[in-house]
Amino acid sequence: MKEKQNNTPVPYQEIANPITDKTVKQNTNQLREKARHGRLDFWSEMSKNISWFEEWNTILDDSKAPFYRWFNDGKLNASFNCVDRHISGWRKNKAAIIFEGDRGDRRVLTYQDLYREVNQFADVLKKLGTKRGDVVTIYMPMLPEAVIAMLACARIGAPHSVVFGGFSPGALKDRIEDSNSKVLITADGGYRKGKVVPLKDNVDKALEGSNCQSIKNVVVVNRTGQDIHMEQDRDLWYSDLINDAALYCEPEVMDAEDPLFILYSSGTTGKPKGILHTTGGYMVGVHTTFKHIFDYQEQDVYWCTADIGWITGHSYIVYGPLANGATTVLFEGTPDFPAQNRFWSIIEKYGVSIFYTAPTAIRMFMRWGEEWLAGHDLSSLRILGSVGEPINPEVWMWYYKYIGGEKCPVMDTWWQTETGMILITPLPGDASFKPGSASRAFPGVDVDVVDEQGKPVKPGEQGYLVVNTPYPAMLRNLYKDPERYLSTYWQQYEGIYLAGDGAKKDEDGSIWCIGRIDDVINVSGHRLGTAEIESALVEHPAVAEAAVIGKKHELKGQAVSAFVTLKESHNGSDELVAELKKLVVSKIGALARPEDIYFTAELPKTRSGKIIRRLLRDIAEGKVIGDTTTLMDPDIINSIKDKYAAKAS
Ligand code: PRX
After folding, report:
1. Residues with CB under 6 A from ligand 1
2. Which of 181, 433, 450, 531 could link 137 by a cystine bridge, Cβ 3.0 to 4.6 Å?
């Protein structure tokens, strides 16, 4: 271990790799070495590890950059890669999915089980009239049927759009309408902390009246058995349909660049963006990164605690692990039900060897205390992972020490819905790790930190995180909005992808991700656009204007704070605060609920009328106010500050 101080963003101690196995080290070195010989050769070699019906001809077509095309003319099917190719040999009987329900119920699906049900459900979708290219919306709890539905869509070439089960009817409606889906797959409900979550009721609300005219059928998985409304001719039970389905459904031969899925994610302005991923590059990207970042071995039991409604669930619960023939744990519940040791009992029960979670969860475990680990044997763990937000060095250390028992390296993985796969990460065979740094680019990926002009910053200086060259799993477009694709990611620097994150490099070239530099808030690793929450707030008849910021939060990383001006004749009150919070939850979902709402006579604006969120953030975090010279009326700040102080005391 060596101490580092100069020029590093955070004081830290480098941790020597606790893995002594030489092959792990060799694999990491070999992978880095391969990529040094050429990025395209590297990805060409990696592409051979998945199954193609027809080989590709051109690895990268950049003639219409930044609308890149990877593996041109290659033909494949993602579901074939995740199931069919594992059932010809002994893997047929290997557990593909270990499902643990909220209330402790368990189901294990072997690769053969998964193959069979994916085929059946693919046949069901076809019989409902779903054609290649039709978008299917999936709004599900964490159930095996959610994975089956995703793979069934992939099998018939229908891009899926998974909407996180915690989103409100309004958010579901917006996403259905944007994608024009004809079929929606859901469940009667799910369980959370022993109670039933009324998922189907949300669906009924989303489809009310003239909403979502495109939806012709809703397929309902029976999970809780509670009484629900079934709309005649529209709503169908999953189990009835499966009973009548054929056992085999030929996988569609998809072009490498055919869409695999859309996943909506929050942006800086307006509606969520439909991030579009295609088949060949995505599959190569997630297969390769899963295998090498987690040193995946055949006997591993892998558990990623994300929800399938987010990109982490897509890439590292479903496609990455299953393409590798791995056993992936799917957990419906929460870390604190029935008690705060739930995660540790799951790891022990299934002998989990690779564990991938988020800093916000680890911070919560730290707060609950080490005593919850007592009596749990976590010795099966080999590799730990972190994703979703910067991991504070002390949180990294706690994770390493208490969960990993100082024998598992922590992979701090930086990536985004847009990147599809992990881009910045250490590798398990690296000599040492820096707690708090996501380390460096994955082999075959070229990232940097640059200034306003696009020049690489010096060590220790903050800049913008960019990706210099295309890589297979990158997004290809924004669904039906190529203009926004260009303006969001490619406008700032010519031919270079702007990630929207701030970062620093140290003298060794290690990257320290700082967080979003745009109007995106990261609450517990979930991305929310300030504009979305503001639009929800101004829908209230009493609200004139709203500005939303992300305020530092000990557990969640960031929490939503809203500053609201009211229309004349309206006064702020605790009731109004409660109403506004409720409104945001009903428009977006519980994760967007503002932690605090402040009523203010005016909002700080530039002379051109733009709200200065930076100032609001400073006030909320109790920092000294910086430069206010561009303010239209600098006195506003003092009055907001006084209000804030009065409320906070
Ligand atoms: O700010 C970065 C943060 O999460 C953002 C991407 O959010 P989303 O598209 O929802 O995907 C989350 C899961 C991949 C990034 O722009 N982020 C993600 N991972 C890290 C991170 N920030 C710091 N360190 C990370 N390891």
Report:
1. 265, 311-312, 387-390, 412-417, 438, 499-501, 513, 515-516, 522, 527
2. 181
